[in-house]
Amino acid sequence: xxxxxxxxxxxxxxxxxxxxxxxxxxxxxxxxxxxxxxxxxxxxxxxxxxxxxxxxxxxxxxxxxxxxxxxxxxxxxxxxxxxxxxxxxxxxxxxxxxxxxxxxxxxxxxxxxxxxxxxxxxxxxxxxxxxxxxxxxxxxxxxxxxxxxxxxxxxxxxxxxxxxxxxxxxxxxxxxxxxxxxxxxxxxxxxxxxxxxxxxxxxxxxxxxxxxxxxxxxxxxxxxxxxxxxxxxxxxxxxxxxx
Length: 243
Fold this sequence. Notes:
By secondary structure, the chain is an alpha+beta fold. 28% of the residues lie in helices and 29% in strands. The protein contains eight helices and nine strands. Strands 3-7-8-9-6-5-4 form a seven-stranded antiparallel β-sheet. Strand 8 and strand 9 form a beta hairpin. Helix 1 (13-24) packs across helix 4 and helix 3 crosses helix 4 (50-62). The relative contact order is 0.11. Residues 79-87 have low confidence and may be disordered.
């Protein structure tokens, strides 16, 4: 099968490549597990650089539409679970609704350069600083979750905000940015020295690791969030509804 894009179009090449990939993965062969053409061959066929093609591929990988395995190839991913809510609650609001008083043990704000994964999710370059928020949270009995959040510079956060307020309340009321869609990955992780110190566990203890990709109403990325939870002090519940 021959693929092509329009080099005379005003639409950026990476955006055209992304749209083409979205059409390709709907083809029955690819939807049923056939590997996509390798990057070198597809980039040559489209007459674009591998960097441009990789930018489009990365977008679909982080959306959960493609999976990539080094030395094997790229193919359509299986169905992923994502949560969508009309009434988003931040962690503070959710705990408050459950009658659990939350304490901030640490709260740090810095401007940091994103790594490649975060830059690809936000579709920005790695040399553009973004706001990084770190919070160690828990109850009077001690901390049970360590959050690291990165925010898209499009939002306009300055770092002077009062992040003791609920996060999504700040985004919505102060910046007219509504968190509307969350895609999450949940896995187990072994506590390293840093996490062990923060969560007051032993190095090597198991912890719950959650990676969250948050989008606005236009499904534009706004937050990249990492959460590290005490395995024996916190239960993460996922509710699914059959439609």
